[in-house]
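Exercise (ungraded).
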Amino acid sequence: MSEDPSQEVPAPKERRVGVFLCQCGGNISDYVDTEKARATLEKDPGVAHIEVQMFACSDAGQQCIVRAIQEKKLDGLVVASCSPKLHTMTFRGAARRGGLNPYEYTQANVREQDSWAHTHDRQGTTDKAVAITRAAIARTVRSRPLEPIRTDTAPSALVVGAGVSGLRSALALSDLGISVHLVERAEKPGGQLTRWARLFPNDKSGRAIVDSLLSELGRRDNIVLYTRAEVVEKEGHIGDFTVKVRTSNGEKVTLKVGAIVVATGFEPYTPPKGEFGYGEDGVLTLPEFEELLGDGSRPIEFHGRPVRTITYVYCVGSRNPEGHTYCSRYCCSATSYAAIRAAGRDPHVRQYHLFRDIRTYGKYESLYERALKSGSLFLRYKDDSPPTVTREGGGLLVKVADQLTGGEGVEIPTDLVVLVTGMVPRENTVLTDVLKLPVGKEGFYNEIHQKLRPVETVVDGVFLAGTAQGPKNTAESVASALAAVSKTAGILLKGYVDLDPLVAKIDTSACTWCGLCAQACPYGAIEEVAEGDKRVAKVVPVLCKGEGACVPVCPLQAIEVEGYTHDQMRSMIEALASEEE
Amino acid sequence: MKVDPSFAERVSKGTPFNAEACLNCGQCTALCPIGIHLLPRKLFRYVLLGAEEKVLEETDTIYSCLLCKMCEENCPAGVHITENVRALRVLLAREEMQLAPVEG
């Protein structure tokens, strides 16, 4: 990265920008008159080449861009197409292949922010497309070539949490030759899985799975396990974190790691006393019932009495507009599976499932089918008329309105009530604060994008594995753990990582160190340093995300973000606000 | 109504009754050539829940069935619908009409 702020940005008229207007196969051109936009923008200062494309992101489209850069000797590129979230990397790649610096590229979003938003107004969308593209051109003519920030990576990783996701992550990282520090808060590793005697779909024991992972762990000399330990401090950045872990004897151990995998898991939902009779003898949560069911083969007994009738109430603590609004994913399948096992132990056991919706997705549908065939009866209740659980005489009585017989009131005298409880996020205040992890509205850790970047967080070098991120069954947790491992290894095995150079820079001649920028920065990327005889602010480029919170708070306008300089922002606003004659 | 598992057992005594696999999709009701509104899914549900009263109220319906098997042929869960209707008729004959089984 060039550090010379005095480098002259060529005046707009000297630039040769190529502009590509994408039709997105009609997604844009059905509402925006792309030909008219082309004719309007053609004469704009700095535009050396402009053309309309059916699909700019297609192979043919990208080749056109590469050719135009070379033939027309372009020094800047604008593609007016979809959201930059989708194709910034695509077109930066095209720019690079054409011989252009990728940071001389700007994406103008004329789909999500224009054609899709105003489908009723062709003239309006066309005018707006022109304005948005013009702003992108204005930014591009004031751009300058930038080089990515390269930083070295240490070949070791920290895994937080030694449940199934954490253990699996640690082993997979070790397989790839990355040394692992595995930190577990509890006394013993294994997590929630150790409570489950049998797991769908392969009838394996949770304890046995954990034990086999632990025995494998014992054979690795590049994994260190710390139990009753907690991460208390973190410094540094992707590739080079310094983490302090407080161990069981109160000592602080300092670890150098290149990346961090967070696998802190979930907490089973515990209903408050009285919710569907919870607290009454014979009313259990799903994990409690699982422990009762265990691995036995004789008919189930509870407190020495035979269990002849079991009633399950689904979605307890999940899909509740006033509490946890999400679906916990695993519970329908786990309950169907528990019902199959209960019927296997006693073919005469009566099982009633009171549900709102059954989500035994994918191949787990076969569990639901087996539960039906083994004699379970499913009764649907409506959201607004949940079942009630009361103690009548010596036993429990469940009342429910069965929707499938037209709301018939059904009374079920029962020996056991199983509340099918979901997953809730764990209390991890210290870790959340130390790692600066983003927490979603449900309390789980947030990924960057559910589908496109599912295990990465906004903190570079910190990845998510398993249910710390949200409800998952065991197979899904392991899949996400391995995804996090792939991402981690992708960084650590290369030995270095390239970061976006679109970061803040400080004009130290103007800066007088008031500290406001450091306070505004959510990433702790600004520090105070001495320069000559005065104190000034300094940006740590590897920590900076270029989000710009520091820029408006600076009273001396001494901070700019590369790629979004004051000059560029002003010119973009002017372009957006300009009226067409 | 109170659930009564013994009713389904009584129905099963003569001819086996089995509707556990029913998914309540309604294919059977939609295909019934004589448009029996209740048959068979709701009726079977009454049996499984043990709502004897409700089943007896529908004696005429149970005897209206043509046993054409249109529903059974198309049942995605493979429920033997006509066998179940027979089981109900056997129950009604035995318990309500006090008829003895025909000697073979």
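Further reading is listed at the end of the chapter. For now, observe: Residues 47 and 169 of chain A are 50 Å apart (CA to CA). The interface with chain B takes residues 350, 352, 369, 372-377, 402, 404-406, 408-413 of chain A (CB under 8 Å).
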